[in-house]
Hints:
Helices cover about 35% and strands about 30% of the residues. Strand 4 (about 105-115) and strand 5 form a beta hairpin. By secondary structure, the chain is α+β, with helices and mostly antiparallel strands. The longest helix is centred in the first third of the chain and has 26 residues, at about 5-30. It has 4 helices and 6 strands. The protein has helices spanning about 5-30, 55-65, 80-85, 95-100, and strands spanning about 45, 70-75, 85-90, 105-115, 125-135, 135-145. The chain has a 6-stranded antiparallel β-sheet with strand order 1-2-4-5-6-3. The termini are far apart.
Amino acid sequence: MNKIVKILLIFLVVDIVIIGGYFGFKALSGGERSSPASAYEWTRIDENYYPQDFIEEFIKSDAEEKGMFPVLLKNYGQDLKVLKRFRGKNFAGPGETQLKLRFRSLEDWQLVELKYTAETGQETQRAVLYVQENGDWKVGDNGVITQ
Length: 147
């Protein structure tokens, strides 16, 4: 064979082995890394739960008023990676800058995910973005955390 053809064949074989190894490794490792949201644990809020902060206290008192115990809660706090995966009515993957633009006097924010059984018996799971403006906490948006 010609010397150039041999070099091209060797080059192609090496490329095929490298590409095959890459895709084979991705297939064996599951392809995706675990999501940041999966690193958080569900916390069960019922009559005996002691709230860790104002948001958890608000959720507990609201569930108590509506008779919706137990409520499962994932508190993401200010995790920007999870916030980027938040899809709500007003935001789709916001950053902290977008929050500050929307809420001019933003002091603090917190993202939580709730799972509860509604009065109709239907299980509901939703994410709620709480924001603090002028010392008052309020719901800034609600939606879901995408996988």
